[in-house]
Every structure is written in C-alpha cells, then in structure tokens.
Amino acid sequence: MIFQWETEDEKLLKSMRIPPKKKLEWLQKMHNFLRKSMTKKQREIFYKLRGAR
C-alpha cells in the first residue's frame, strides 16, 4: 500500500535513471502502436499537425 506520493523531484530523478536508448525504444514502440491504431482521417490530421511545427 502506498502511504506517500512521489514528489516531482523523485519522479524526475526516476525518469533520469532510465538510459536514453531505452527511452527512445519505448517512444518508437508507442509511435508504431499509435500509427497502427489510427484511422486514415486521424493519421492525416496527425501528420498535418506534425508538419505545421
């Protein structure tokens, strides 16, 4: 049972300990999942917004 919530500093330190390669692999997997699960219309909007940056 959790008796104390993580502070923002603890969350930041926890995420900093994850190696960059592991983070990039996770981001790639998430991108692939989203790409496969989007409808054609959603994909068009996503890439349109992505290109607007």
Structure write-up:
The mean pLDDT is 88. The protein is built from 3 helices and no strands. Helices cover 74% and strands 0% of the residues. The N and C termini lie far apart (43 Å). The radius of gyration is 17 Å and the shape is elongated. By secondary structure, the chain is mainly alpha-helical.
Strand content: under 5%
Q: Could you tell me the number of beta strands?
A: 0
* Uncertain parts: none
Q: How widely separated are the two ends? A: 43 Å
* Assembly type: single chain
Shape: elongated
Radius of gyration: 17 Å
Largest sheet: none
Write a concise synopsis of the structure shown:
With 53 residues, the chain is mostly helical.
What keywords describe this structure?
53 residues; mainly alpha; single chain
How is the topology of this model organized?
Layout: H1 8-16, H2 20-37, H3 40-51
